[in-house]
Amino acid sequence: MRDDPTLNARARAYAKELSPYFNLEDKKQKYRADKLFKRLRRKVGKAIEDFNMIEPHDKVMVCISGGKDSYALLDLLLSLKRSAPFPFELVPVHLNAGFPNSPEERVRGHLERTGLEYVWIDRPVFTVAKEKMNPQKKTLCSICSRLRRGYLYATAREIGATKVALGHHRDDLLATFFLNLFYAGSMKTMPPILRTDDDTLTVIRPLAYCRESDLSELSKFKDYPVLPKGLCGYGENEERAAMLRMIKAWEKENPKRPDIIFKALKNVSPSHLLDRRLFDFVNLRSGRALGEGSSKQLRFITTDRAPESADET
Predict the structure, then answer these.
(1) Which of 69, 97, 123, 156 has its CA 20 to 30 A from that of 31?
(2) Does the residue 301 lie in any domain?
(3) pLDDT classification of 229: cutoffs 50, 70, 90
């Protein structure tokens, strides 16, 4: 793999040893860790290619939350950057939300080690979220997510980013799908790529094809300085947590089941569902219905946006 001349000396040195292979002594562990890293790297590359997530000369803002997924996202994108057929820029950004007793120095220390030029922003997310919190709700997740998303998007515009990369993985997409299915009566999830409501930014999720279990294993090999959960003191979104537990239980019972369900999200047959916006059932009898494979344009309604995760970064 070639050196990237756009990286400074410290970043190049960090990028050369991204695989946990270089941090381990045991030969079996080294082999397993390197195989895992390459598998995740391949899946991220495939997602980027399938959805055209990154284009030449993009400035990609990588949102670093302090969780395992965002650390892995940065490492995998940096690895791909070294062998990409075109140049693009990575800018890690961390939003310090002001949670009490949060060991933010862990995140700063890791970003310093990467050698990349990063952006650090301090915003009163926790304070504002408490003020705006609905007293009937037990968590801050919804309002906190919206506030953080707003601050991050504003930062992306300030630094001239063309893409905003979030660390949502396959299990997050499945959990969102089942949340909508069970609680909202709709079939949608977090899309791998989308435009913001004001049409000024493109949000991408390069980990869309990656299993959470693989990311957890990578985090252990790499010993990422993960921030503890529950820093706000209000607990997590229990409905989302229940969906993730359900997916993990399925994976233990039948390891292929989550993958099959995820495959279904990419293999939709509008004529075998009930949405009249996606298939012209009215004209079916007369033979004028617009079906799959038709050269005519289906009457899609594109104003609906998929709901964002409670843990946006």
Answers:
(1) 69
(2) no
(3) confident
Which range is least confidently modeled, 20-29, 105-114, 156-165, 208-217? 20-29
Between CA 161 and CA 171 the distance in angstroms is 27
Kindly report the pTM of this predicted structure.
0.88
| Contact by Cβ (8 Å): 75, 18 | yes
As a whole number of angstroms, the distance between CA 103 and CA 113 comes to 17
- Tell me the DSSP string of 238-287: HHHHHHHHHHHHHHHH-TTHHHHHHHHHT---GGGS--TTTS--TTTTTT
pLDDT on residue 284:
84
Residue 59 lies in a domain: yes
Mean pLDDT of all residues in the chain?
A: 89
Q: What's the distance, CA 130 to chain centroid?
A: 26
Per-residue pLDDT at 175: 97
Task: Map tokens 């793999």 to a residue.
Answer: 1
Q: Residue 118: which domain range?
A: 9-261
Residue 273 lies in a domain: no
At 64 the three-state DSSP class reads coil
